[in-house]
Amino acid sequence: MKKTLHMHIKHLHILVLLLCGTLAACNREDALGNVDDINLGGDTWVKGPIDEWIADSLTTPLNVSVKYKWDQGELDFNRTLVPPKEEKIIPVLSAIRKVWLQNYIAEAGEIFMKKYCPKFFVLVGSASYNTDGTITLGTAEGGRRILLYVLNDFRIKGMTGYVPSDSFNVKMMFHTIEHEFAHILHQNVMYPLDYKRISAGNYTSNWNNVTDSDARSDGFITAYSMSNPDEDFVEMVSMMLVEGRQGFNDIVNSITEPGPNGTTPEQAKSILRQKEAMVVSYFNDTWGINFYSLQTRTRTSINELVK
């Protein structure tokens, strides 16, 4: 099963605080056969410091492989893409290890992460632009491989060109990863079916014509959450982790107008609190993870990258 995370272009500049509102779309399609994603040979470049860092930090401890050298065979042939800049590789992967891998390991244990963590990452410098007005930010395939795009825009403290107030690309990166990993978790153990009933009747394929503000007024954390229950669930997980508890509370409390479907602000807030409670219960009951503790760790780690 392949999941693809898209973002509608018109929202690109308004997501600094609310990210990743329209970040989102994950279109399903069948995975191709039993193709082995990991390249077992043929890479001819001389291994250098980047490769040594990947081996020591990711491959040896977690059996995670990373491809950053350009290989069009790993990507869609009908897309115009650019390779990642090599100076971005270690900062990006270090941030991923800090914010995502180490925090999950701290809460769920190394065995959990070794079992469920995708084993192959492919890195791309640019976004992948689509004909429907969205851009692809990440793709997860069968829980085995994740493609991460837009690496060349990634900026954190200490990097050239970094602006302290600009955490957009950092939050975009981790929204993508947390979103895709939440898909992997619910594909292994499904979240409670009652979750699908909370907003039943309000899901729409026209999510990309809805603003985040309007979506929240109808009880959805982002516009893409309105596409279907699975995306609604993983967007909740991702937004709660990336924004942190205070950031999530601020989003909920910001709802003051009725939604397009006639939902009152009080109803919208109640819906989001129901969804929050079900996410927290799912992580605790299914995986033995204290979600609020994971949330605090994740947000703290992100803050340390950008402040």
How would you characterize the overall build of this protein?
The structure is a single chain. This protein is α/β, with parallel strands linked by helices and 307 residues long. The chain has helices spanning 49-62, 86-108, 110-116, 168-188, 194-198, 212-217, 229-253, 265-287, 291-306; strands spanning 2-8, 65-67, 120-123, 128-129, 134-141, 145-148. It is 46% helix and 9% strand. Strands 1, 2, 3, 4, 5 and 6 form a six-stranded mixed β-sheet that branches. The longest helix is centred in the C-terminal third of the chain and has 25 residues, at 229-253. It is globular, with a radius of gyration of 19 Å. The relative contact order is 0.15. Residues 9-25 and 27-42 have low confidence and may be disordered.
Radius of gyration, taken over Cα atoms and rounded to an integer in Å = 19 Å
- Give the CATH architecture: 3-Layer(aba) Sandwich
Number of distinct beta strands? 6
Provide the domain count: 1
**What is the CA-CA span between the terminal residues?**
37 Å
Number of helices: 9
Provide mean pLDDT, rounded.
Answer: 83
Describe what is shown at a glance.
The protein is 46% helix and 9% strand. The protein has helices spanning 49-62, 86-108, 110-116, 168-188, 194-198, 212-217, 229-253, 265-287, 291-306; strands spanning 2-8, 65-67, 120-123, 128-129, 134-141, 145-148.
